[in-house]
Amino acid sequence: MSETALVKKIACIGAGYVGGPTMAMIALNCPEIEVVVVDINEERIKAWNSDKLPIYEPGLDEVVKAARGRNLFFSTDTKKHVGEADVVFVSVNTPTKTTGIGAGRAADLTYWEGAARLIASVSTGSKIVVEKSTVPVKTAEAIGKVLKRNCSSPGVTFEILSNPEFLAEGTAIEDLRKPDRVLIGGAETESGRKAMAALKWVYEHWIPSERVLLANLWSAELAKLTANAFLAQRISSINAISALCEASGADVQQVAHAIGTDSRIGPKFLNASVGFGGSCFQKDILNLCYVCETLNLKEVADYWAAVVTMNDYQKQRFVERVLGAMFNTVANKKIAVMGFAFKKDTGDTRETPAIDVCKGLIRDGAKVSIFDPQVTSDQVFRDLSTSKFEWDRPDYSRSHTRILDNVKVCSSPTEAMEGSHAICVLTEWDEFKTYDYQAVYDKMCKPAFVFDGRNILDHDKLREIGFIVYALGKPLDPFLQKNYS
Ligand code: NAI
């Protein structure tokens, strides 16, 4: 059978940050394939079918609008579309377990198993099942068993492929349009190779053949966890150096530039910051550690766990800097938090460092005024009242705790900064660089502080205006040095 004959309809379970954009890109480039994204979350599907998509991503609106209604559809009728599809992508959330064995480390595969059971129950013909979610090594084996044991239709077979997603939020559409590579892992059998060829054929509609890499299942699964571990490690490495820079008078940007010109190291991902966030880095490293531990590789687990430890240290260090600079008390002081998303050009707040920084400031009695161009007030309150690791579960009924009486979410930057004692820049939004900081300074309490957790502002200019500036990983203003009197 030719690959083309195999793929007439694709269903994707999970209409999130990965499922929505990836399927929109496939539909755009493969007009002859019907692509349906399904989800149990009705509100999300409604939003995908509306003018206001459920996620913010530059360029996404155009791609969705070009294909939606033609060969791209969003639906809650999971059974019908999964049943009809020849290829089923599974792009559901794979959060960190919060209870039971492996809590705080292992991946919770409840949603994945639920998807597999659904596929098995509605399949009357053979299918290719594609792991798009990031999963622990050997998940395909477990999923294969679930599929086989739960499908009652005779003669139906499932070929499982691993096709991890490497897109980065904020640049998802560009990443999908021109990926560095697409990775497809499959069984080293004739049917496995056939399934890999079918999926490769889909991607080759717009991606050069040499960029579609084939591997065995376990390599593909592990490659995704490894990629995220390496990326997060780079951030933690430069953040560790940023602490040393502050202590020694070195400048982390100069150090990063100097090492980044070494072609073996390269210049990307060397920006020191208040810490990494996003739904994946921490969860995937913890999951990698757990896999290592279960395979009796304690030293390997400890090695990778340090990347997360350093990230927590960096957030804590930032809060301590704010506190130390402001005479060891922020009680009842208005502090403007500029940026809540985990990075610019996304509204995603999952594991954003802003959560831990705000919680740290609130615990010390600060009145926090938050402004972010893309994050809603509801989202901020939900994040600040959610316990660690709980965010990736669909429970939107949590109530706000009393601690949040000291939190205000502002609809303009002026509202957030006016009358404040300090400004903390926690997301690198471009618009933050363009404000009239003289006007801001004039309406702040003195001494007026700026704590730039992303090193995006013009620090010399701010100092000229009169601000006391903390720039992460850079030589400290005399005012911020402990022995200053
Ligand atoms: P998400 O939480 O935005 O979306 C997952 C969706 O799956 C939710 O809308 C949920 O309602 C739905 N879902 C869960 N169980 C379902 C079921 N049984 N039937 C139908 N729908 C169901 O998650 P996101 O960010 O899209 O991530 C998905 C996977 O992709 C995760 O494993 C993640 O680690 C991985 N990934 C995420 C990236 C990112 O930048 N967000 C990048 C690369 C991989």
Automatic annotation (TrEMBL):
Keywords: NAD, Oxidoreductase. Pathway: Nucleotide-sugar biosynthesis; UDP-alpha-D-glucuronate biosynthesis; UDP-alpha-D-glucuronate from UDP-alpha-D-glucose: step 1/1. One of its GO terms (molecular function) is NAD binding. SUPFAM superfamilies: 6-phosphogluconate dehydrogenase C-terminal domain-like, NAD(P)-binding Rossmann-fold domains, UDP-glucose/GDP-mannose dehydrogenase C-terminal domain. GO terms for biological process: glycosaminoglycan biosynthetic process; UDP-glucuronate biosynthetic process. Gene3D superfamilies: Cytochrome c1, transmembrane anchor, C-terminal, NAD(P)-binding Rossmann-like Domain. Its EC number is 1.1.1.22. Signal peptide: none annotated. It catalyses: UDP-alpha-D-glucose + 2 NAD(+) + H2O = UDP-alpha-D-glucuronate + 2 NADH + 3 H(+). It holds the Pfam family UDPG_MGDP_dh_C. One of its GO terms (cellular component) is nucleus. NAD(+) binds at residues 14-19, 39, 44, 92-96, 133-134, 169, 280-283, 350. Residues 336-459 form the UDP-glucose/GDP-mannose dehydrogenase C-terminal domain. The active site is at 280 (nucleophile). Belongs to the UDP-glucose/GDP-mannose dehydrogenase family. This is UDP-glucose 6-dehydrogenase. The lineage of its organism: Eukaryota, Viridiplantae, Chlorophyta, core chlorophytes, Chlorophyceae.
